[in-house]
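pls design
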């Protein structure tokens, strides 16, 4: 059984992430998307919301499972009984950090290998951060995230903006 874990923040999941999920799921028996519950970052969406959005946009892929995790990705890979870690490479700017992470993870666990997928060119500039920034200024994010996600981003941002206004 070839099992892989695709870890990330997915705050929120983008069309670039989804492309990696579809391509990775096509070459392994089971793909577990690990949603990082990171206390140091302040995400727009809670870990439960991020898990639910991922579940919604991956219903068409039968061998994908979505789970939340905290701590080291490589530990989560071990816990899932997986042997591969999946990551996406958008540009050279991703490369240095991703190479360092892959080497670190391999030194922690020699049974875990990292599989890199190069991004579809049309999604190469998309990041969760850019999505949130564009949405904040009322821009169109329909090209960047799946439709149900776009709706939730706008809802969340307008809720936050209203909250901030009432705090003043
Ligand atoms: P992290 O905080 O771990 O970087 P992200 O959710 O930002 O979490 O990204 C998770 C993984 O998906 C990373 O390997 C990242 O390089 C990759 N990724 C992010 N955006 C894209 C994209 N547009 N196309 C392909 N891969 C992407």
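designed seq:
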């Amino acid at each position: 059984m070839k099992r892989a874990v695709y870890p990330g923040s997915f705050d929120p999941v983008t069309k670039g992430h989804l492309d990696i999920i579809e391509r990775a799921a096509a070459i392994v028996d089971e793909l577990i998307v690990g949603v990082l519950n990171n206390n140091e970052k302040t995400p727009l969406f809670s870990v439960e919301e991020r898990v639910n959005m991922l579940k919604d946009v991956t219903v068409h892929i039968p061998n994908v499972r979505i789970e939340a995790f905290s701590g080291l990705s490589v530990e989560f890979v071990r816990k899932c009984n997986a042997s591969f870690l999946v990551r996406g490479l958008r540009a050279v700017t991703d490369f240095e950090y991703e190479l360092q992470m892959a080497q670190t993870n391999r030194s922690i666990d020699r049974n875990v290998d990292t599989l890199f997928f190069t991004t579809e060119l049309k999604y190469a500039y998309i990041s969760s951060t850019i999505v949130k920034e564009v949405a904040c200024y009322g821009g169109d994010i329909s090209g960047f995230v799946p439709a149900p996600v776009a709706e939730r981003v706008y809802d969340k941002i307008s809720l936050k903006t209203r909250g901030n206004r009432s705090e003043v």
